[in-house]
Amino acid sequence: MRGAGLVLIAACAHASAEQTAVVRDDDLIEVATVIPDAVIDLRYATADNFTGAVLYPVARCKLRRGVATRLARAADALRAHRRRLLVWDCYRPRSIQEVLWKRVPDERYVANPKLGSRHNRGAAIDLGLVAEDGSAVTLPTAFDEFSAAAHRDVALAGDAGAEARQLDAAMSAAGFVGLPTEWWHYDAPDATKYPLSDEPL
Length: 201
Prior knowledge:
Strand content: 15-25%
Shape: globular
CATH class: Alpha Beta
Largest sheet: 5 strands, mixed
């Protein structure tokens, strides 16, 4: 019996090692599992977006594990300033990219689905900030504001850009790269190493 017990323990240890081995940097994981205080407000899971239509079947924010880990560092830095992340978009299936492109075929604001978006790679995120208690703070523009007011050099300026500058400092320190035309959009620096995906949410 003792020998059987040792065999069972060894088998469990082997199974555990195999489970650990399959954890990969490019796994798509839910951001809420690593940043539980993030406010998830996925606009494409509601009609409150520039298309006026519900595009996502669920409000599930996913990123590549390596990207989510990087984002968690930014969230830690912002907590020190009594701020939490407000997340508007994360991984986006490539088929949804085609829908957005049909609405706004302008590469300044929507990536051409033929090339794919970094959102389709699970390596881009659209986000703002809320106060520690979840209440709104002053942000430069609404999400998906397709105008010069949302351009980073304009949006981060002056008193109205104070919160966005705080977000930008935390995201930049974590290695993210901001998009010039959208103050809320950040790409992981190694975004292109992740594959384009149409995996369902």
